[in-house]
């Protein structure tokens, strides 16, 4: 892929010094529900995770049978979302879940993205009650041309689902530690 999409820059370090609420509670001024810390993994530093409060209608992930080479990180949903938006600019393929998440804004923040597999899994551990219990949620993590990772919040199931399924989208943003 030769083009890259850019997403707004995550919150500055001065905002990161704020004390977060307990996981599952609204974080005033930060755009949503605090879902804990995504620990440092590989070259990605530790981040606070804040999930948007809206539960948009159910959306498909994207085109069934098409793989985006750079949208397979299990950790970095921000990079996955940027790769999906860049692929749309090149191919014209729609990625409804990623587009919805990247277009979300709250409390003056517009640096949201479609969460990765790790981000959704950590939210299911730390703040499951902040999500609809009877719904599946899309991640930005792609498994193949035909499936992407999805997370259930009722009992914690995690599966690879067909990209043409319609699931909920919950945008997330990071606040660096």
Descriptive tags:
single chain; 3-stranded antiparallel beta sheet; 20% helix; 23% strand
The largest sheet is: 4 strands, antiparallel
Shape: globular
What's the total count of β strands?
9
Residues in β-strands, percent: 15-25%
Percent range of helical residues: 10-25%
Tally of alpha and pi helices: 4
H/E element sequence? HEEEEHHHEEEEE
Q: How many angstroms separate the termini?
A: 31 Å
Low-confidence stretches: none
Radius of gyration: 15 Å
- Structural class by SSE content: alpha+beta
Textual characterization of the structure:
The protein has helices at 13-16, 77-91, 96-102, 117-126; strands spanning 26-27, 32-38, 47-51, 59-60, 136-142, 147-152, 158-162, 166-167, 172-176. The protein has 177 residues and is an alpha+beta fold. Strands 1-2-3-9 form a four-stranded antiparallel β-sheet. A hairpin with a 4-residue loop joins strand 5 (136-142) and strand 6 (147-152). It is globular. The relative contact order is 0.25. The model has no long low-confidence stretch (mean pLDDT 90).
Outline:
The chain is an alpha+beta fold. The protein is built from 4 helices and 9 strands.
Secondary-structure map with pairings?
Layout: H1 13-16, E1 26-27, E2 32-38, E3 47-51, E4 59-60, H2 77-91, H3 96-102, H4 117-126, E5 136-142, E6 147-152, E7 158-162, E8 166-167, E9 172-176
Antiparallel strand pairs: 1-2, 2-3, 3-9, 4-8, 5-6, 6-7
């Amino acid at each position: 892929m030769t083009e890259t999409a850019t997403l707004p820059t995550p919150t500055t370090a001065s905002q990161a010094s704020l004390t977060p609420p307990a996981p599952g509670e609204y974080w005033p001024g930060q755009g949503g529900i605090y879902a804990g810390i995504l620990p440092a993994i590989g070259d990605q530093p530790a981040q606070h995770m804040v999930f948007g409060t809206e539960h948009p209608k159910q959306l498909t992930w994207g085109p069934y049978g098409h793989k985006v080479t750079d949208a397979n990180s299990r950790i970095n949903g921000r990079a996955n979302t940027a790769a999906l938006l860049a692929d749309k600019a090149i191919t014209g393929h729609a990625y409804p879940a990623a587009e919805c998440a990247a277009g979300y804004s709250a409390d003056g923040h517009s640096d949201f993205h479609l969460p990765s597999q790790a981000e959704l899994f950590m939210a299911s551990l730390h703040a499951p009650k902040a999500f609809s219990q009877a719904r599946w949620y899309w991640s930005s993590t792609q498994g193949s041309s035909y499936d992407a990772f999805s997370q259930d919040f009722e009992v914690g199931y995690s599966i690879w689902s067909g990209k043409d399924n319609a699931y909920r989208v919950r945008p997330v943003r990071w606040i660096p530690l």
